[in-house]
Amino acid sequence: MLDRSEIGKRGYLHEDYRLFSLRDSRAIKLDYHYHEFDKLVFHLAGRAEYHIEGKSYPLQPMDVLLVSRNMIHLPVIDPSQSYERMVLWINRDFLSRSSTEDADLASCFTLAAQRDLCLYRPQGEDRARYRALFSRVREASSSTEFGARLLADTCVLQLMIALNRDIRTPLPDSGAACRFDPKMEEVTRYIREHLSERLSIDRLAGTFYLSRYYLMHRFKAAYGCTVHQYIQQKRLQEAAGKIRQGVPVLKAAEEAGFGDYSVFLRAFRAAYGCSPRAAGRSQFGQAGQAARE
Fold it and tell me: Are 90 and 18 within 8 A, CB to CB?
């Protein structure tokens, strides 16, 4: 699920944010993956469909996708048309530092996750407004003139303020903007709520009155990964978050649902490229594939 070959090629998000202005006219092959930073995708042209945590979003020009950190996702594009987009990686610490008591700039990602809807579709004049907001970030980020970094920060904050204001009023047809499997969404919700417990295929199948083989097939069709892979990645994310907060490594692994520390250690090294203890002493993040998304 996590493509380690991308490490070093596109690296981690060490800075506050990074904008990519991208165009492709060929097929892009990616695995389902996640990042430890938040991401906005502004779709400009072409046929593309994003699969995010079991939901599919066929994109229209000027759509804004909000991909929260740790959300498993995959873009699928039609190579018969040029796929053009702007992708903004954002460090959650930057959003926290820039927020105020009455204005949490990360709340748009929180709200999107609560609604289970990762898409904002601007209407009318707002379509041009969002194109201008993203373009200003791009221009300021590439400038070398006096105060360019400060101006770029300001442009990113203007974009985030606008998105946070607009997303609070859902559009009437927003629910029709995605496709999903309601039963598998119930399964994943159950998994996330019971990560610390023993989660076997048999237990899940019995809980939802499905045969184990039907559950595995249907889950793979909806999420692009096996049930076991999904559970392990969610447990790794949970453990990584606890380690970052200062929880001892062994305790973090146990609380995330890993019964075998050696299994946890191997999985953590494969996902993050370092040991849990080393990760606890430094800021770490998921290797980015977004430069091709």
Answer: no
Which of 10-19, 66-75, 155-164, 261-270 shows the lowest per-residue confidence on average (mean pLDDT)? 10-19
| pLDDT mean across residues, the chain | 85
The rounded distance, in Å, linking the Cα atoms of 40 and 210 is 36
Residues linked to residue 89 through DSSP beta bridges, in sequence order: 18, 39
Angle, CA of 235, 237 and 242, to the nearest 5°: 95
Residues 6+ apart with CB under 8 A from 13: 35, 36, 37, 89, 91, 285, 288
Cα 258 from chain centroid (whole Å): 23
- What is residue 129's DSSP assignment? H
Query: What span, in angstroms and rounded, lies between the C-alpha atoms of 112 and 92?
Result: 15
pLDDT tens-place string over residues 202-240 = 999 999 999 999 999 999 888 778 899 889 988 998 998
Q: What is the spatial distance between Cα 255 and Cα 190, in angstroms, rounded to a whole number?
A: 16
| Both structure tokens of 285 | 């993040």
pTM score = 0.77
